[in-house]
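Tutorial handout. Part one gives the primary structure; part two gives the three-dimensional structure as tokens.
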Amino acid sequence: MADPADRSQLLEQALASAKAGDALAALQHLIAAWRVAAAEPIARAVDEVGRAVARGRWPAGSDGKPGAQAQWMEVAARRNPADLSLLLETLWSGAKLGQARKRLSALLQYAPDPRLFPALMEGLEEPPCDVTGQDVEFFWADFFEVLKAADDPRMPPLADRLLERTGRRDPEWAIRERAAALVPSRQLEPLGPEDVARCKAIVAALEIGAGQKTEEGFLREIFERPGDDELRQVYADWLSERGDPRGEFIALQYARCSGRQTPAQAARARELLALHGRRWLGSLVSKVDVFSAVFERGFPSDVEATDEPDDAPAWATISTLRGAVPGDGTPALSLVRIRDLTDLRAFHRRTLPLPIEELHWKAGAAVTLATHRAQLDRLPPLPALRRLDLSGGFAGETPAFFEWIWRSPLGAHLDALVLTSAPTRLADWLAMMDAHRLYELDLALTGSGRMMIVNGSGGRGALFYRDVARSWTPGVAEAFATEVAEILRDVPEGAVAEVEVRLGRAKLAEKIEKRLREVAPGHGFRRATVVLETGVRRELL
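Part two.
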């Protein structure tokens, strides 16, 4: 184990440089401290300081995105640790297999550095180029040479992880043998509380000592105030001044929010997200599904959790969380809805109220109503809940069951329900809506669609619809038309003012139109409309 005094001395020197506003010197001392003793707090400080000092260091005309091989190699040849963060961010940009090998070789001069190993592993989530050709063994030889030089004790057993990240597209012999032989020469070392405090103080001192904000400082403020649009746009300008493509991406997303985004700008935003989205997820990258994450206003907003949400500040921008429930320590400042939740017991680890407005529970078909009620009874306070979606696969709900919901704390503020049950007697559901002032009720039909009932200012409306992506055969259309007609026959006169049916194919509209004309007399419908997938509306009344 390294001498703690040497490590502490280097961290003290880094702190002194940071307080003097010399970020590059602070970075050099931090890297030296990592080489003396590998510790996680030192690695985090190197990453944060490295990203801060790298801004604006690319050659003129590169626009912060050195896609050209000559530009990338020119920057790498400077051998300045301040360049490494952006070299790693653009490691595979525009590189073919031979060029990627040259870039890997250029990284050797920076090792050991704690930024190398995480960047290489993240880059393999999306393979940099075609690594399945005849030179695949040489690519992996170069790749593992850099990992060996990095000598990072955070490396897990690599063989299975590498095969998983590359989608098993490469021959196993090119990976397994080298991965099995790759054993770091040192282990992670714990830091004492004084050295941990020094690492944090270095980052904080740079923000003050340099007389300007750092990226870490901006992110900290955004996560504390995720609804502050002006702050995000100032951050975008700051990034753009330093050649960071995220500044352009944030500006493009705000253009979309205002309705001013052109098709070319939309395409550019998609391109930037494909290139950098994984990095922009930040600390959430190992906690959410990377490929389905949705960004709004430059930050992730709709994600599917692959692990339990932790206390990372980056959760603060998430408005829609799929498949998980945040714990009491998770900063859920923007959270509005939880969707695709398969087990309400995920809520049971919470003790604090959760101010979500929408909850979607995908209970399996085997879940009984008794289990259903038992799990709902144990929910923590949800004082802002307005929409409850129980369309997850179980069946058997009845108006009587939902009378129990209205009597429970869960139903105190509900104005929308989405259910699996077919409306065996629509009049009962309409009476329930009236009794509890429910604005929206969404029910499944027997097997061919759904029905939404909405209480609007112009009276109650009934919307029948079906996913247009699903097959519309004549038999399905006939069943759909029959069910719609039977449901509407049960409607008391004057109870529904408008009926709208959305269809997938124009040639099947006649079946629906015929049935609507049959049941419309005597029911007091003011309007009956058939809407085709092309957007064409046919007014029947």
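Part three, for discussion. Residues 4-181 form one domain. Residues 59-67, 166-170 have pLDDT under 50 and may be disordered.
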